[in-house]
Amino acid sequence: MKRNLFDEIPEELSEELFAVLAESEGVKIERIVSDGHASTEGFWYDQEQNEWILLIAGSATLSIEKETGIEQVELTLGDHLLIPAHQRHRVKSTSQTEKTIWLAVFFS
After folding, report:
1. Domain extent listing, the chain
2. How far apart are the first and last CA of the chain?
3. 54 to each of 12, 68, 105, 107, how far by Cα in Å?
4. Quick one: which of 70, 69, 60, 67 has its CA closest to 96?
5. CATH code matching the domain that covers 17-107, chosen among 3.30.470.20, 3.40.50.720, 2.60.120.10, 3.40.50.11540
6. What are the C-alpha distances in Å from 107 to residues 79, 94, 102?
7. Mind listing the pLDDT tens digit for each residue in 19-63?
8. How many other CB atoms sit within 10 Å of the CB of residue 68?
9. Distance of alpha carbon 94 from alpha carbon 88, whole angstroms
């Protein structure tokens, strides 16, 4: 069934919107829509799987915990990033002027 990645995005989002586009054993592909959202203060993702992200609209800044400290990674249209399993990270900010749309692939 043909679908469009930009369909079914509400005008107003009180929280981030997550939609699983496809999944099978060991792999999940998800669309994430942010609208000025950020991780809750003090919250860090620490995931069991690797995560590859591609920013297809908007912009975002991620905080990634490294042995040497916290690294800030700014993402704009077309930027992609591989976050290894158990790499602690958080969304510091997303665009305040347009929706930020991510394509995320989770895999072992």
Report:
1. 17-107
2. 27
3. 23, 25, 9, 14
4. 60
5. 2.60.120.10
6. 19, 24, 16
7. 999 999 999 999 999 999 999 999 999 999 999 999 999 999 999
8. 6
9. 18
